[in-house]
Amino acid sequence: MAVAKPPITASLTWQGDLSFRAETPRTAITIDSDSTKGPSPPEAVAIALAGCMSIDLADIVKKGRHPLSSLVSNITVHRRDEPPHYFTSVTLHFIIGGNVPDHAIQRAIDLSRDKYCSVWHSLRPDIEFHTTFEVRA
Length: 137
Hints:
The protein is α+β, with helices and mostly antiparallel strands. Helices cover 28% and strands 34% of the residues. The protein has two helices and six strands, in the order E-E-E-H-E-E-H-E. A three-stranded antiparallel beta sheet has the order 1-2-3, with no helix packed on it. A three-stranded mixed beta sheet has the order 4-5-6, with helices on one face. Helix 2 (102-116) links the parallel strand 5 (87-97) and strand 6. Helix 1 crosses helix 2.
């Protein structure tokens, strides 16, 4: 039987203007509507999505014993023009270093998107989601 994940907790403290210091029990960042002192809330969600899938991809590829030497992820998110400005499409491009076969990368991306990435599964189901990758040995 799976053990329940503990709840995620955070505390946000207003820093003036539209900026907040966000603290979890282990780390802290600044969230800023103007994106000057830290990412805006939508940017933070985009970063979280790219981070979640990147971690999955690296973990799955390495568990497959493939020689991953680097991984860069670039995310582009389009948002609705009218409020609420929710995500309408996401493109996530991975640049993989190492002699990792294409099929292993695609399998890792598919597993992350379809099974493991909790951030992706927490977003709207009607978001268009595209992933691409390239290998630079």
